[in-house]
């Protein structure tokens, strides 16, 4: 399974939960693609030992992803939906 993760900046109190999510997905051998601006934010918040693929555009993920996971609120979800468009993800 291949999952794209989309997110924006968040409060420091959320970091342990995000780290736990990534650890869980890696443990389950799930291929993870992280939205590049979100990946850069994550790298500024904690050391990530995992090597993820990153993406910036719809074209980069439309034929490669099974599921998209949006981390954030309503605005984040709306941005994620506009990114995946009618891809069927």
List keywords for this structure.
globular, 89 residues, Rossmann fold, alpha/beta, single chain
Write the layout of secondary structure elements.
Layout: E1 2-7, H1 15-27, E2 31-35, H2 36-45, E3 53-55, H3 58-61, E4 67-71, H4 74-84
Parallel strand pairs: 1-2, 1-4, 2-3
CATH topology-level name: Rossmann fold
- Indicate the CATH architecture: 3-Layer(aba) Sandwich
Q: CATH top level?
A: Alpha Beta
**Major sheet details:** 4 strands, parallel
Spatial sequence of strands, sheet with the most strands: 3-2-1-4
Q: What is the total number of structural domains?
A: 1
Number of helices: 4
Structural class: alpha/beta
Strand content: 15-25%
**Uncertain runs:** none
Ends distance? 12 Å
Number of E-state strands:
4
Protein model, in words:
By secondary structure, the chain is an alpha/beta fold. The chain has one domain (2-84): Rossmann fold, CATH 3.40.50. It starts with a strand and ends in a 5-residue tail after the last helix. It contains 4 helices and 4 strands, in the order βαβαβαβα. It has helices spanning 15-27, 36-45, 58-61, 74-84; strands spanning 2-7, 31-35, 53-55, 67-71. Strands 3-2-1-4 form a 4-stranded parallel sheet, sandwiched between helices. It is globular and about 35 Å long.
């Amino acid at each position: 399974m291949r999952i794209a993760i989309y997110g924006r900046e968040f409060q420091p109190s959320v970091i342990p939960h995000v780290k736990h999510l990534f650890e869980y997905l890696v443990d389950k051998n799930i291929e993870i693609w992280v939205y590049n601006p979100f990946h850069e934010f994550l790298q500024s918040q904690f050391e990530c030992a995992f090597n993820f693929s990153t993406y910036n555009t719809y074209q980069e993920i439309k034929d490669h992803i099974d599921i998209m996971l949006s981390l954030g609120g309503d605005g984040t979800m709306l941005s994620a939906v506009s990114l995946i468009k009618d891809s069927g993800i």
